[in-house]
Design a protein that fits this description.
With about 425 residues, the protein is of the alpha/beta class. It contains 14 helices and 17 strands. The protein has three domains: about 5-135 and about 305-325, NAD(P)-binding Rossmann-like Domain (Rossmann fold, 3-Layer(aba) Sandwich); about 145-300, 2-Layer Sandwich (Dihydrodipicolinate Reductase, domain 2), CATH 3.30.360; about 345-425, Alpha-Beta Plaits, CATH 3.30.70.260. Helix 1 crosses helix 12 and helix 7 (about 160-175) crosses helix 8. GO terms for molecular function: homoserine dehydrogenase activity; metal ion binding; NADP binding.
């Protein structure tokens, strides 16, 4: 009988079905590449009677986690349930029983990574999570292995497909946020409650994971500055275009001598930057290393088969480690303790849109406030006045965030300033 490594699968939703299909359809190629066969022995689901759209062997489904964690034949547990509980308890139980774990769960890894890696290290087994960030794009393995000889200075990119789809539509068609959100929900790109996506929280979890790996230091999720796209208007997109920029929601991590910047927010990037061309629901991650220079990784950041592709690659790595008796050979790489800089200490350029009274001396008074706070203006455009008001569009040189915020606090007090309509950071320029 052919020797195989047995797998327990937790969850048979979209990604779980993809994992099952890839392992079945590519069975022989996978066996040749790994050197041993891989077989799913048990699948834990909530409802045994639900139609899965798959032809499954009799008896493979269970609702009892112990059927997987207590089975000595099962060497690899694959978690694709999502959410933190009960997934966290199940994964810890598997690790504590010496089983290698593959997960696609960004929430769990971002919030409980330290605890999970400690369990994996203690029990000498693998904890692999390629699919937790950017779907089918092999970015985690790249940072941990292919670019391991580099000092990574920056990691930033488009790591949420929903918001990228929405901003692409707003840019191309001039739609407003509410209409595009409804369309994204109708097409299945956005959830009924879209807060995690449009609020930037999904991207925050992903950039926390990437920054932890890239800079070899643990990034607490609560220290990631997070801002969503709900305040982006067609007017901002129009002005961005006039100034030579595209608006994208970016996760940004920079390794500076003073500490690490980690943030998520809408961003102006130049039209000629590689990320500007990434449209629809695609993801892309830009990495700058001191040896390799600039690299970019592009592909589908979600979906059944792209995400399952990353999961299966991790399963194959875990299987190789088992047959070579070296599970856990690449464990947690957070061997530094770098400070995470408060957002006030981060550096960027800024686009600022003001609604002001249309009268002489307004621009001079605003420029004086910025100057007093050491904010240098790169460009100022006064748009056509409407009645007794006008719109000012300003772009600053690179400056510390706190200086900009302090200046805006004073500007809001000016009688000639009716509204600070929007503030958006500018990145991707030297």
């Amino acid at each position: 009988m052919e020797q195989v490594i047995k797998i327990g699968l937790l969850g048979l939703g979209t990604v779980g079905r993809g994992v099952y299909r890839i392992l079945a359809e590519n069975r022989e190629n996978i066996r040749q590449r790994v050197g041993i066969g891989l077989e799913i022995k048990k699948i834990m689901v909530r409802n045994l009677d639900k139609d899965r759209g798959l032809s499954l062997p009799e008896g493979i489904l269970t609702t009892n986690i112990q059927d997987i964690t207590n089975d000595p034949e099962i060497k690899i547990v694959v978690e694709v349930l999502g959410g933190i509980q009960p997934a966290l308890d199940y994964v810890l139980e598997a690790l504590n029983r010496g089983k290698s774990v593959v997960t696609a769960n960004k929430d769990m890894v971002a919030e409980h990574g330290q605890r999970l890696f400690k369990a994996a290290q203690t029990n000498q087994c693998d904890l692999l999570f390629e699919a937790s960030v950017a779907g089918g794009i092999p970015i985690i393995r790249t940072l941990k292995q292919s670019l391991a000889g580099n000092r990574i200075d920056e990691v930033f990119g488009i790591i949420n497909g929903t918001t990228n789809y929405m901003l692409t539509k707003m840019t191309q068609e001039g739609c407003d946020f509410k209409d595009v959100l409804q369309e994204a929900q109708a097409k299945g790109y956005a959830e009924a409650d879209p807060t995690a996506d449009v609020g930037g929280f999904d991207a925050a979890r992903k950039i926390a994971i990437l920054a932890s790996i890239a800079f070899n230091t643990r990034i607490p999720l609560q220290q990631v500055y997070t801002e969503g796209i709900t305040h982006i208007t067609p007017q901002d997109i129009l002005y961005a275009n006039e100034l030579g920029y595209i608006i994208k929601l970016l996760g940004i991590a920079k390794n500076r001598p003073e500490g690490v910047e980690v943030r998520v927010h809408p961003t102006f990037i130049p039209k000629d930057h590689p990320l500007a061309a990434v449209g629809d629901a695609f993801n892309a991650v830009f990495v700058r290393g001191n040896a390799v220079g600039d690299t970019m990784f592009y592909g589908r950041g979600a979906g059944e088969l792209p995400t399952a592709s990353a999961v299966v690659a991790d399963i194959m790595d875990a299987a190789r480690d088992i047959i070579r008796n070296v599970p856990g050979i690449i464990g947690c790489t957070c061997f530094k303790q770098l400070p995470v800089l408060p957002v006030g200490e981060t550096l960027s350029k800024y686009y600022i849109r003001l609604r002001v009274a249309d009268k002489p001396g307004v621009l001079a008074s605003i420029a004086l406030v910025f100057g007093n706070k050491e904010v240098s203006l790169k460009s100022v455009i006064q748009k056509e006045a409407t009645g007794k008001t006008a719109e000012l569009v300003l772009v600053t040189h690179r400056v510390q965030e706190q200086n900009v915020q302090d200046a805006l606090m004073d500007i809001k007090q000016l009688s000639s300033v009716m509204e600070v309509a929007n503030v958006i950071r500018v990145e991707g320029e030297e």
